[in-house]
User: Which sequence fits this backbone?
């Protein structure tokens, strides 16, 4: 799109450049004898010492050249393959081109995975501006690690980085590029060194073929399958539309090939297989979003909030709008409102920031009084203790607590405290049935499950990444019971052939009574999660980790004590138990799959019989 | 952002994405109606007493001829002198080879002075149509009154390849056809067309007979393909029959010959030039896409895809495999709810409208753009008899086996062609889409399918539906999210009535326990959280006294396994499994189609409960615009389903009023309120205009309510469109913000909170009522585009409404219509 509002189109099939005036609905065209298959054009929007306004650069892969035309279609110069030793072995088949004010050309060469070719204004090779990385899945990385070259060759893992598909330069000289591949860094907004400025972002489409950016910096990408995705200037996904469907209906595409945006925010698209142009005007919804983003960039936060609220009226489910409102409130230091909207938008990172500020404010206001209250509490406690020692006025209370703790079950449960403190002796007494009981063990396991459930489902918003309603209670219960039950069983089976002295029940009790630190870890970290921010994530992890490690250590000691094993025997026994557990789980998964298939088969058989017999 | 949010964002965007509108001047798009097409300056006349034409009959308005060799029925409209032919009437023997030889011989005779130059010109300069030049079947296709498509390998084919046989008999080696026209009982208006085919199929051993009775009517003619007389060994493999595919076709590419006289130096000679585009005439085809679309005749520079509409919507059992994927994130395509199409030539000069009076449920309407298969714009109807599907043996559908239906669809296909002439001064039917609509309306009124209604109020109505509740996932099962409770409905309606709006009707969506998606359509289970039976009864009763109609909304078509048992309730696909709709929605992503017999049964059952609660009306969705063939036991065909639905609604119409969502034409008779009326087309790229055809047909016979204004249908231009299209406003409301339902299947209702729409309800109602309030009870007689973007609607009470969509005032002589506004003239 040139400054006169005309579209400059590379007509590859007819080897020409077409200039289309959408208002007058007229076209003009020009070409040059060397032109063979032009696929990319770039129009210079400002004059400089090196380029003039309206100059048109054309990338032609079949001709292997970049052509430079003046605005009236006169060929100024053309650039072929650069004469550089570094470029000697590489093909030069320009598909797309963009040019900065210094006349430096950024060329996407067909199929080149080396990166965007940077050429000087005289056509000399300056280097590769940016390159893409190979993105391997975890499994592929593992395979890379352990497989031989031959095995890797057989696997046919694509180690070629995704190819660049287009390049664009905005009026501020920022270079953008699009690539086709996995949904990782498909759109890049480059620094002058070529690195990507966009943080990790949600990318809606994979097979990007083109990118365009409007004056305020909103990015529009075109996916070959007909999807047009729109992102904010810092890479936040706004919306997507279009689709692949070859039915000749407006708004759908057979092969989306190029995208451009004009000053009014209209999106222009080309369908290369159906040979037509489609344009889209922004809706009230879209333009309000754009304006709100622009106001935020201009630090006009209060006005931006109002616009985002207007967006919310149009779509009360817009997470983007809540996020936008919250970001502005954050700048306006309205932290409570910011936190409220970040929570609706599910933005944990910035919610944490707002929450940190809120907590800070609270602490500033309440730190001294709180410390005062705590101090008073300590003094009161000491005074009460002193008075009690003198007058025994708390004796009735003590009698009640003693009565409660002397309850068999409660006493059995509380024995876990002793286990945690003095495990070696405690497990011995447990084994000898001097303390603890099955009922106590079951109660402790119940508490463990409750604490675990609290930890995975009840944390504060910042740390609770999975919504409660998206959890499956059944599989959590099943998973917990299966893990504990199988461990106890496997341990029993393993130890019974390793001269172990413990019975199944003793192992069960040992494991259950080891869980107190884990329970405390879960509960404490869950409680802290309500007052912590992401900065204190480490603290949470440490508390949970210590609880878990302590419990595991207790399990270890319980096996050692109950089975009367040496250190080496215990380690060996536990390792074999874990191995056994894994094998059982694998076998179980396999059997379950087979049974499920058999079950489905039988069900379908019955259903089919019903259908045919009963109709 | 989850995919749900993403798709919502898309929906919001896509719903209101409009094609190019260059800022400033008014640029009409295919969503508008453009000015009339150019007039035909010279109307060609032929001498039908020669050239193999036999006159069949003559009436006051028409003369009918039959071209036996080419199989063409010719109708000359005496009112305007215009001649319509059921085929292009191309001489199939005049190929390029023949014409080249003719030119060569004429040239030689001329150079030998045996003939003069004028004779040379007359003999040589006869253009040859590209259909003849390229493909020997070309003229057959273009001339034939009927053609049929069949699975050519019969039972021996695993892939079911198709082939086409044309009734126009040119003795080619392709197959043997014998088609004849014979009079019936000496009645000059009754003729029987018999189309016999021998030696078809890959082994040339199959036969086929199609018999069509042609009645020459007062308005034109009617053609009926008689089901009982279909015969032949190829019959089980019959796929479709097309009727007069090139009637009214425009365009074409020819090879033209130019003779040059001899000079002193040179002999006389001739030149030929191929690919010469025939001059395109003004005019358009009308197709029943959404509210109605026009496809203007034009030469296309690129190959565009045709428009194909399955009348009354796709049949999931016959169109799709055993599952159907819900549409992507674009605006849903519109259904053809009436079996009508038409073609107009020139500017209010000559037109015909064609409508099915039988077999509409198996009808398809096709409009081919110029530059596609042929170089003609042609629009026609075809009827579907058999279908191809994949027989599958596992739920995953692995290793499907292609099959065709065991039984043909059984129906008589009858199409009426009525011809229109002039600009509407001589009769009420101008030769344009308005005349077509009025003619079709007249047919529906004559057959009792439509009857005029008297206005019940002095103001227009407004539809305020309430979205009550829906379910979302929970850690254990599902939980119901309530967006509006019965008490809220009372508050909101009272609030609206306080503004002076009283002509209100409301449907309660998701009124049942578990809300929209899991509420059981076969029962009526009330929940106190949403509304108890008593609270609903009071609500309905109290507002009924105030003249407000509150009813329960129910979809009786799409069901899911979590809502109701599929056994004996869900329709079966011919593949043997329940037909499925995969929706990608959450929490319920798989839907099934209720058996038509169950839809009707559930409707009656629930209606019985509702009637006991004193509802003044019933609001029905799903079964009103969908027809599925059910292969459970004894097959329930689309025809059976229509009868079931008509009977059910007929019984209900005596109990209360019926509010039907986008009903197909077979339910018009029972519709009191038409809900969710489309005001756009699907926007096929070949469509050039959108017109209120359906609205013209139905205006004055039922209350017409537009699509919900909540969703990008609230701007000034949208209000003008309601006025222009004669539809009344409607909203869907909730008391709580819409995001309460964001994790439910109702998440596509993305903006519904009453507080947000309070003002819009008042403004939109006042604006639309300001115009349409003056035409209550009046008949809409004409609609024309007086200038780009300015519409004039005329009514029989003398009121004229000018609607100006442009940003410039329009001067209509006695005054002017302000930019983006309307004026009402005349009347009381």
Assistant:
């Amino acid at each position: 799109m040139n400054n006169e509002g005309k579209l400059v189109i590379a007509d590859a099939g007819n080897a020409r450049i077409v200039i289309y005036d959408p208002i007058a609905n007229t076209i003009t065209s020009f070409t040059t004898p060397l032109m063979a298959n032009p696929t990319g054009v770039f129009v210079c929007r400002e004059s400089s010492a090196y380029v003039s306004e309206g100059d048109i650069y054309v990338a032609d892969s079949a001709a292997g050249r970049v052509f430079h035309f003046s605005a009236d279609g006169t060929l100024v110069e053309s650039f072929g393959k650069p004469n550089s030793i570094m470029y000697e072995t590489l093909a030069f088949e320009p598909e797309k081109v963009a040019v900065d004010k210094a006349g430096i050309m950024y060329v996407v060469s067909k199929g080149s995975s080396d990166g965007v070719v940077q050429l000087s204004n005289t056509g000399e090779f300056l280097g590769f501006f940016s390159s893409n990385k190979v993105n391997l899945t975890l499994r592929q990385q593992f395979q890379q690690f352990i497989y031989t070259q031959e095995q890797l060759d057989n696997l046919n893992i694509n180690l070629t980085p995704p190819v660049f598909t287009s390049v664009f330069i905005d009026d501020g000289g920022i270079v953008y590029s699009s690539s086709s591949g996995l949904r990782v860094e498909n759109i890049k907004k480059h620094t002058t060194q070529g690195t990507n400025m966009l943080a990790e972002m949600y990318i809606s489409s994979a097979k990007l073929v083109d990118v365009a950016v409007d004056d305020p910096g909103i990015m529009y990408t075109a996916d070959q399958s007909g999807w047009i995705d729109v992102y904010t200037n810092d890479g936040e996904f706004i919306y997507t539309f279009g689709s692949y469907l070859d039915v000749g209906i407006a708004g759908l595409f057979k092969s989306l090939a190029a995208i451009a945006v004009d000053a009014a925010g209209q999106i222009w698209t080309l369908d290369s297989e159906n040979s037509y142009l489609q344009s889209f005007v922004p809706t009230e919804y879209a333009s309000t979003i754009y304006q709100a983003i622009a106001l935020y960039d201009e630090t006009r936060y209060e006005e931006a909030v109002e616009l985002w609220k207007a967006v919310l009226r149009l779509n009360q489910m817009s997470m983007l709008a809540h996020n936008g409102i919250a970001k502005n409130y954050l700048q306006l230091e309205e932290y409570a409102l910011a936190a409220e909207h970040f929570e609706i938008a599910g933005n944990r990172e910035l919610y944490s920031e707002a929450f940190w500020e809120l907590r800070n404010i609270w602490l500033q206001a309440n730190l001294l009084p709180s410390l005062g209250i705590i101090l008073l509490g300590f003094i009161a406690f000491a005074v009460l203790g002193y008075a009690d020692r003198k007058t025994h006025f708390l004796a009735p209370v003590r009698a009640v607590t003693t009565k409660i703790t002397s309850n068999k079950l409660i006493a059995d449960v509380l024995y876990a405290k002793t286990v945690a403190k003095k495990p070696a002796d405690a497990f011995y007494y447990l084994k000898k049935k001097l303390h603890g009981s099955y009922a106590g063990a079951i109660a402790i396991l119940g508490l463990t499950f409750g604490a675990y459930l609290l930890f995975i489902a009840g944390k504060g918003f910042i740390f609770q990444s999975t919504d409660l309603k998206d959890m499956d209670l059944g599989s959590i219960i099943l998973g917990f019971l299966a893990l504990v039950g199988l461990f106890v069983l496997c341990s029993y089976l393993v130890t019974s052939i390793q001269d172990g002295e413990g019975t199944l029940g003793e192992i069960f009790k040992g494991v259950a009574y080891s869980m107190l630190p884990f329970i405390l870890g879960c509960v404490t970290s869950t409680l802290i999660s309500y007052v912590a921010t992401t900065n204190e994530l480490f603290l949470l992890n440490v508390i949970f980790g210590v609880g878990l490690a302590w419990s595991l250590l207790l399990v270890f000691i319980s096996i050692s004590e109950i089975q009367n094993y040496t250190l080496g025997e215990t380690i060996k026994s536990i390792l074999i138990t874990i191995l056994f557990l894994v094998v059982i789980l694998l076998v179980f998964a396999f059997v379950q799959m087979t049974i499920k298939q058999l079950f489905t088969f039988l069900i379908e058989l019955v259903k089919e019989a019903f259908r045919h017999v009963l109709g | 952002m989850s995919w749900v949010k993403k798709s919502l964002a898309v929906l919001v965007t896509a719903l209101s994405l409009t094609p190019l509108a260059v800022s400033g001047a008014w640029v009409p798009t295919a969503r508008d109606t453009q000015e009339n097409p150019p007039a035909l300056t010279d109307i060609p006349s032929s001498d039908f007493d020669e050239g193999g034409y036999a006159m069949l009959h003559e009436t006051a308005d028409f003369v009918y001829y039959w071209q036996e060799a080419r199989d063409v029925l010719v109708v000359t409209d005496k009112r305007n002198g215009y001649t319509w032919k059921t085929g292009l009437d191309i001489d199939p023997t005049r190929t390029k080879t023949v014409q080249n030889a003719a030119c060569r011989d004429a040239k030689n005779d001329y150079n030998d002075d045996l003939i003069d130059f004028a004779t040379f010109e007359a003999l040589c300069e006869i253009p040859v149509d590209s259909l003849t030049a390229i493909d020997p079947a070309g003229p057959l296709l273009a001339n034939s009154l009927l053609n049929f498509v069949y699975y050519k390998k019969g039972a021996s084919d695993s892939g079911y390849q198709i082939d086409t046989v044309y009734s126009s008999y040119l003795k080619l080696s392709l197959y043997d056809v014998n088609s004849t026209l014979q009079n019936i009982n000496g009645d000059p208006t009754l003729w029987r067309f018999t189309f016999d085919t021998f030696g078809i199929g890959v082994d040339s051993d199959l036969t086929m007979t199609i018999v069509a009775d042609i009645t020459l009517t007062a308005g034109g003619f009617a053609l009926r393909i008689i089901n009982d007389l279909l015969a032949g060994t190829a019959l089980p493999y019959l796929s479709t029959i097309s009727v007069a595919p090139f009637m009214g076709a425009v365009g074409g590419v020819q090879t033209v010959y130019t003779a040059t006289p001899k000079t002193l130096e040179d002999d006389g000679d001739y030149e030929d030039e191929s690919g010469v585009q025939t001059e395109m005439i003004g005019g358009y085809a009308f197709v029943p896409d959404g509210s109605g679309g026009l496809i203007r005749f034009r030469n296309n520079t690129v190959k565009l895809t045709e428009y194909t509409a399955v009348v009354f919507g796709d049949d999931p059992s016959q169109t799709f495999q055993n599952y159907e994927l819900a549409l992507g994130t674009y605006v849903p395509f519109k259904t053809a709810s009436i079996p009508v199409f038409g073609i107009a030539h020139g500017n209010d000069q000559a037109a015909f409208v064609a409508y099915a009076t039988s077999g509409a449920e198996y009808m398809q309407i096709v409009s081919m753009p110029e530059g596609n298969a042929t170089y003609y714009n042609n629009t026609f109807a075809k009827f579907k008899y058999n279908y191809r599907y994949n027989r599958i043996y596992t739920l995953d559908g692995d290793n499907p086996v292609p099959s065709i239906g065991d039984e043909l669809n059984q129906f008589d296909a009858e199409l009426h062609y009525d011809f229109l002439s002039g600009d509407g001064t001589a009769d009420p039917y101008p030769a344009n889409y308005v005349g077509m609509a009025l003619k079709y309306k007249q047919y529906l009124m004559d057959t009792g399918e439509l009857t005029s209604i008297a206005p019940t109020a002095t103001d227009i109505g407004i539809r305020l539906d309430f979205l009550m509740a829906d379910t979302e996932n929970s850690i254990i099962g599902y939980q119901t999210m309530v967006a509006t409770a019965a008490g809220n409905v009372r508050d909101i309606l009272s609030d609206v009535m306080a503004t002076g709006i009283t002509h209100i009707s409301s449907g309660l969506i998701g009124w049942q326990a578990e809300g929209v998606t899991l509420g059981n359509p076969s029962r009526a289970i009330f929940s106190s959280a949403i509304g108890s039976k008593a609270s609903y009864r009071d609500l309905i009763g109290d507002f009924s006294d105030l003249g407000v109609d509150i009813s329960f909304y129910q979809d009786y078509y799409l069901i899911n396994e979590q809502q109701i048992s599929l056994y004996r309730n869900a329709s079966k696909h011919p593949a043997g499994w329940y037909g499925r709709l995969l929706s990608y929605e959450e929490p319920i992503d798989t839907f099934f189609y209720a058996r038509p017999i169950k839809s009707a049964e559930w409707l009656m059952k629930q209606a019985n409960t509702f009637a006991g609660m004193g509802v003044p009306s019933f609001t029905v969705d799903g079964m009103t615009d969908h027809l599925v063939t059910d292969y459970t036991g004894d097959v329930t065909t689309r025809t059976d389903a229509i009868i079931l639905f008509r009977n059910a609604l007929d019984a209900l119409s005596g109990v209360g009023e019926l509010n039907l969502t986008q009903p197909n034409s077979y339910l018009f008779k029972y519709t009191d309120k038409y809900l969710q009326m489309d005001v756009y087309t699907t926007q096929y790229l070949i469509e050039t205009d959108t017109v209120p055809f359906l609205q013209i047909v139905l205006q004055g016979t039922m209350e017409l309510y537009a699509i919900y204004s909540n969703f990008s249908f609230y701007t000034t231009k949208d209000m003008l469109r309601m006025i222009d299209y004669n539809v009344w406003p409607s909203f869907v409301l909730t008391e709580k913000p819409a995001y309460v339902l964001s994790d439910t299947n109702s998440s596509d209702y993305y903006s519904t909170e009453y507080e947000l729409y309070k003002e819009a309800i008042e403004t939109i109602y006042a604006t639309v009522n300001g115009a349409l309030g003056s035409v209550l009870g009046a008949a809409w007689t004409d609609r024309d585009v007086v200038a780009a973007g300015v519409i004039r609607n005329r009514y029989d009470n003398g009121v004229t409404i000018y609607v100006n969509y442009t940003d410039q005032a329009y001067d209509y002589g006695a005054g002017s219509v302000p930019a983006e506004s309307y004026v009402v003239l005349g009347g009381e």
Observations:
- Residues 1-24 of chain B have pLDDT under 50 and may be disordered.
- The two ends of chain B are 57 Å apart (CA to CA).
